[in-house]
Design brief:
Chain A contains 14 helices and no strands. With 359 residues, chain A is an all-alpha fold. In chain A, helix 4 runs antiparallel to helix 11 and helix 6 (118-145) packs across helix 7. By secondary structure, chain B is an all-alpha fold. Chain B has a domain at 21-119 and 147-223. Chain B is globular and about 65 Å long. Classes of the chains: A mainly alpha (359), B mainly alpha (310). At the A-B interface, helix 6, helix 7, helix 12 and helix 14 of A face helix 4, helix 10 and helix 12 of B.
Chain lengths: 359, 310
């Protein structure tokens, strides 16, 4: 128990570690600006285009926030599993499973005829369960055979993404009926009743109710991680499984549940992405949200506050990057470079921090 | 077999081998690296950099061989970065691998647009093809082996690696670094040096794999053209149960599965493409789930080695 008490980061330690992620982001952003300059685009023009796309209009703010909400869900799930020293790299596939199940229920599962808000809540819950099941497979494999969850979630991710691709390619599955040869390989739009309500429909701001759900769930995760028995078990399993087992904790169940939660959050992100923003399931539905969510989770350093902050950062960064490409002609690939730099800087600093803490 | 069937088989085997090559090169490098205890998710990024640098070198000089050389030169710093992060800084190998992949995808996309142009598909001089003498006229085989000479190098390297791992002191040190790093340390070997060397080797092999893609097959560079081949190479090592022969077979099988995506529609057979693309991943999942024989990954895979007393 003393080990657990020591491992709980104090506020002071957290504050002194804060400058590492902030520093990483600043260095990476400077690198991005250098590339903008190298591309021969004037920096003010590029920055203006970025700002315009990220927060220049109510529409831009809404789009950035929606993106941040999806990333926030994936990131929350990531830190729950990571507390037990489990790394979920399968967000992409879990989002895909959530999207498939949500689409199927909304279009063909009769969700639209459910009374009131149940019409959109039930498919969301189903999406979360689908993602959770997909994640928990990795947990079961880990407990039963000791399969490294990184390898299994990676494989499951590819399977999920291609399953989605298959679903929207076949009219017998989720593809919209073929009217002519130009019919796109995507599903029909989900019925209005199953769409997640918008928070501010009058403002021309496409921000859906997922933002509220995210804030509520974030608070719940923070409490569970810090105060509940389950939070303690996660930490114990992560720090010292052997000791946790001797203390009589159910290691296997904790691992499976942790992976279920990680997957469920990603699946829920998929449900909100579909029912709140995209409305039709397209072939490239998860489109990097899983990987971005993983980065958000890593950047958060295990705290809920960190998840929300980095989800906002990447939500706006992505939206701004896309706008920068469209209006200033700067390749949005620069955003990838920035993201890659952030990850590498953080990965490299982890050990250094660890050593400093011990010293 | 009638005439068209012979031609078809030759085409199918030929394209299976060709499509397997990028994966095979990378997988052989990764095999050595994983046996030494380091997992390189960065395979994908290193291959992409190899494809990019190979294409640029060949485009600038008109010499595909110089392109090949540039591919290796350009990938080595990335491999060194991966090695430094995962061996010296004890960074999470998964995280650093993903970081490298994202960085390289962004950097090559950016650089290609700046250097060549937006979504350009300019043709670049490719590697020469070679068929073993005497086999040109043999049905099926002759057609299947009209291949870039790099293909034969891949199989030669595979044999060399099998011998190296099983019969040499270096092979023993690699095995020890991945299975019993403490034992290697105690017997005076350097876990750090073996692992760094293994990652650099994986880098060189990924560079060759990527360059095969741009110089030996497609003859141009497109953004993100490896498109998951690096991850498939990783899967090949897993499915190959960390053994040379089985890894080669796994990669050739994945190549055949990819070739089928193009061949089946041509034959008028309707199989959902998604199923064929998914197949290698499903098989690998079944393998790691213990449904295809016993899996025996190196004991210390992905575990940073901490020298006692440091």
């Amino acid at each position: 128990m003393t080990a657990l008490a020591v491992a709980r980061p104090t506020l002071g330690a957290w504050r002194s570690e804060l400058w590492v992620p902030v520093g990483a982001v600043v260095v990476a952003l400077l690198g991005g600006l250098a590339l903008v300059a190298a591309a021969g685009v004037s920096l003010p023009a590029a920055v203006a285009a970025f700002a315009d796309g990220a927060w220049g209009s109510a529409y831009a703010v809404g789009a950035s926030l929606n993106r941040a909400v999806a990333l926030g869900f994936v990131g929350l799930g990531f830190i729950v599993a990571h507390r037990a020293n489990l790394t979920n790299v399968g967000g992409e596939g879990q989002i895909a499973m959530g999207g498939i199940v949500s689409t199927a229920l909304c279009l063909y599962g009769g969700a639209a005829s459910l009374p009131g808000p149940l019409a959109w809540i039930v498919p969301l819950v189903a999406a979360a369960i689908a993602g959770g099941v997909w994640g928990s497979i990795a947990g079961v494999l880990k407990v039963r055979i000791g399969t490294n969850e990184v390898i299994s979630t990676l494989l499951l991710s590819f399977i999920g993404v291609w399953a989605l691709y298959g679903c929207v390619q076949s009219t017998r599955l989720l593809r919209q009926p073929m009217t002519d040869s130009a019919t796109l390989p995507e599903s029909l739009e989900v019925p209005a009743a199953t769409q997640v309500p918008q928070i501010a429909p009058s403002l021309d701001m496409p921000l859906h109710a997922g933002a509220i759900v995210l804030v509520l769930l974030a608070a719940l995760v923070a409490v569970v991680l810090a105060r509940s028995l389950f939070g303690l078990r996660l930490r114990a399993v992560g720090l010292n499984p052997a000791a946790a087992r001797r203390a009589g904790m159910p290691i296997g169940a904790t691992v499976v549940v942790a992976m279920f939660i990680a997957g469920a959050f990603a699946g829920l992100a998929g449900g909100f992405m579909l029912q709140g923003e995209q409305l039709a399931l397209k072939a490239r539905f998860p489109s990097g949200y899983g990987i971005d969510g993983l980065v958000v989770g890593l950047l958060a350093r295990g705290t809920v506050k960190g998840v929300l902050a980095s989800a906002l950062l990447f939500g706006f960064l992505r939206s701004g990057g896309i706008a920068m490409e469209l209006s200033a002609g700067v390749p949005s690939a620069i955003v990838l470079v920035i993201q890659g730099l952030v990850i590498l800087l953080l990965a490299g600093s982890a050990w250094w921090l660890h050593r400093r803490k011990r010293a | 077999m009638d005439h068209s069937a012979v031609a078809l088989w030759g085409l199918f085997i030929g394209s299976s081998l060709r499509l397997a090559m990028p994966m095979l090169f990378a997988a052989l490098g990764e095999l050595v690296s994983e046996r030494a205890g380091v997992l390189n998710l960065s395979l994908e990024g290193m291959m992409l950099m190899g494809a990019f640098a190979g294409a640029m070198g060949s485009l600038w000089t008109g010499q595909p061989l110089l392109g090949l050389a540039l591919a290796i030169v350009a990938v080595l710093p990335i491999a060194a970065l991966q090695a430094w992060l995962s061996v010296r800084l004890h960074a999470n190998q998964i995280v650093s691998g993903i970081g490298i992949n994202i960085l390289v995808l962004g950097a090559t996309t950016f650089a290609y647009r700046e250097l060549v142009g937006l979504r350009s598909r300019v043709q670049i001089p490719g590697l020469a093809t070679w068929t073993p003498p005497g086999l040109e006229g043999v049905p099926v085989v002759g057609a299947a082996l009209q291949q870039s000479w790099l293909l034969y190098l891949a199989f030669a390297i595979a044999v060399a690696i099998a011998v190296l791992l099983r019969r040499t002191a270096v092979g023993l040190a690699i095995h020890a670094a991945g299975a019993e790093p403490a034992a290697l340390d105690k017997s005076g070997g350097s876990v750090t040096r073996v692992r760094i060397g293994a990652v650099l080797f994986a880098g060189v092999m990924s560079a060759l794999g990527g360059a095969f893609l741009s110089l030996g097959d497609i003859h141009t560079f497109t953004e993100g053209m490896t498109n998951g081949a690096g991850y498939l190479a990783l899967v090949g090592v897993i499915f190959g149960n960390w053994k040379t022969g089985r890894t080669v077979l796994a990669c050739v099988f994945f190549g055949a599965a990819t070739a089928l995506q193009f061949q089946l529609p041509a034959l008028g057979i309707e199989v959902p493409t998604a199923l064929l693309i998914m197949l290698p991943y499903v098989m690998a999942l079944l393998a790691v789930a213990g449904l295809v024989g016993r899996q025996s990954p190196p004991a210390a895979l992905t575990e940073p080695y901490l020298q006692p007393g440091r």
